[in-house]
Design brief:
The structure is a homodimer. By secondary structure, chain A is α/β, with parallel strands linked by helices. Chain A has 13 helices and 10 strands.
């Protein structure tokens, strides 16, 4: 196990832990022993247990960053109305991950995880710990959207509403290659040592290269052309690079990022239907909003629209921002307002 | 000097060499001593010397690949009508470059080159060797478009027509960061050794990562979604990666690529006008076609359109392809036909 303060209760909490039991078998064949999901709740579960919103996390994200961006009184995700459970995905550094797993099964020996593993683990948590039979809404962005789709396909009877923000049900080849470039940026660092570094700081050069590729694909041309970074408090693009993207990613655990990247590359609900995506999405009974970001360079609206058309009764709601994918992290007020407005619409729909 | 067969007469020729003289001083302060431009000509110069088409090369490109894609009888660039001069940009591996320069000024010691240096060198070639006073057309793609804009701004009295395909007059911040990610992919390879490797094969891992980033930014989402690679003779995306992109880039000299990348990042005609792009583009008197590729991920139409609006009497001609930027290399027949049609229109305009 590695000490990394970024994933601590102090920075990411308060969160609770749920034990997945002595052994949790993974789709790829590995087993997590004594694994835990870290989750945060907001608001109170009502007697009918029908006011639950479940939120899975995105790549590199934690329950905390989601809370800070999207949860609050009078927001769509309002703890005074809903019981909101934000669950850290496996491998994100906070839930069971390479950095907090002891022995040969941790760090460079951590097993491969699939989106389906996350959703099964989350299902176990909400049924065993809270006795839930339905979810008023599952909402997630990016890899959180991948998990949202997986929820809606795998447990259609439970998911009443679903909002997939800036993500796809089946990852594209292009997105796979983007993920590979991020993996290569980290694993090419000699300090990575096949995952057996002693501190994430030994992999700083790789994490900086990884941040560099995010600067291209994670924002977009207009973000730089319009110098949106100025409004975020940065004096130049190098200042933005160093003190936003590099600071953000260099605090993280490289193996955790790699675990999520491998999982992200392979997100695909059609694994339930022998590769038939239409059939898989046809299983969805949730009222579903498909919400791409118009300038997203790797989950482009076109790809999301193609999937939306396969989901009965779904709606296509495009989010507008000149910031690209990373606006998801919540740094633009207008974007947050758009998300709120769409989610309020969705939550107001009778199911 | 390094032996690299990719840049030989056998593979890139026939080309001629033009001596730039004992010393050619560069904008950044360095000097090339005994530098040479490699160029290929097609067709014959007429008596009036008014049938000349000048073509500068793109990133990683050579005079040969341009010839194979765009020059031919009954094409727009028809050697039976025009005297066509394709000039390899400095640092591209064929003209004076890190790999073919001896001593401490070669390889890792090769100086920084600017787009303006190329265009001055090309001007010297065509005036001293051919006595040219005007160019019927300057046309280039990508970095070739950067040089085309530089020609039209620097020597407006000479350039009668200009076609800038998939490139900008002033490079964007986003594009700079894309270039940086490519630089980082190469220079992070321990085999690069600050440019003092003994063979480009020592930098293979870096070149493969560089190819990986091109797979994301150089094509586009639809290229993969529609499996266009199948039509190019590949059986899978990994096959396309290995036997197209990796084969293509791994043959090249890493320092040559780095020389071009540094230059590409800083292409900017507003250096002539103290940063005033509108004023710089206002100098252009050539009939100019601005020809972006609709799915280009790093020279997007929007950026090209903004520049086109600053050029008097210019036309905006969008090229359509689901292949993204690298379609420029000529692998799609319909794209080649579109380029030909627009260039024929441009060449038919009276000036």
């Amino acid at each position: 196990m590695l000490a990394n303060p970024f994933y601590s209760q102090e920075l990411q909490g308060p969160f609770q832990l749920y034990d997945l039991g002595p052994s949790f078998t993974l789709e790829e064949g590995g087993t997590l022993r004594g694994a835990q999901l870290a989750y945060a709740t907001h608001g109170r579960l009502n007697k009918a247990k029908d006011n639950v919103i479940l939120i899975p996390t995105w790549y590199s994200g934690t329950s905390k960053i989601f809370e800070q961006a999207y949860i609050g009184k009078d927001r769509a995700l309002d703890p005074s109305k809903y019981f909101i459970i934000v669950i850290n995905q496996l491998g994100n550094g906070v839930s069971t991950s390479p950095n907090n797993t002891a022995g040969t099964g941790g760090r460079g020996g951590f097993p491969k995880i699939r989106i389906g593993d996350d959703v099964r683990a989350q299902h176990q948590l909400i049924t065993a710990r809270f006795g839930l039979k339905s979810l008023a809404l599952v909402v997630g962005g990016s890899m959180g959207a991948q998990q949202t789709y997986e929820w809606a396909v795998r447990y259609p009877e439970m998911v009443k509403r679903a909002a997939a923000i800036a993500g796809t049900a089946k990852n594209t080849e292009h997105d796979f290659l983007f993920g590979q470039s991020l993996i290569d940026a980290i694993t090419s660092d000699p300090g990575w040592r096949n995952g057996w570094y002693e501190s994430h700081e030994e992999v700083r050069a790789g994490l900086i290269r990884h941040a560099g590729i995010w600067s291209v694909m994670g924002l977009c041309t207009e973000f730089y052309k319009q110098e949106i970074w100025r409004g975020l408090g940065f004096s130049s693009v190098p200042d933005f690079m160093t003190n936003f993207l590099q600071t953000y990613f260099c605090a993280m655990d490289p193996n955790a990022l790699l675990t999520m990247l491998w999982k992200w590359q392979r997100g695909d609900v059609s694994r339930h239907t022998a590769g038939d995506l239409k059939k898989a999405l046809g299983r969805i009974t949730a009222k579903t909003f498909v919400m791409p970001i118009d300038e997203d360079m790797f989950f482009p609206p076109r790809d999301c629209l193609a999937e939306q058309k396969m989901i009965k009764g779904s709606e296509y709601r495009v989010l507008k921002s000149v910031c690209g994918h990373l606006v998801l992290t919540g740094f633009e007020a207008d974007f947050r307002h758009q998300v709120d407005a769409h989610l309020k619409d969705l939550l107001s729909l009778r199911v």
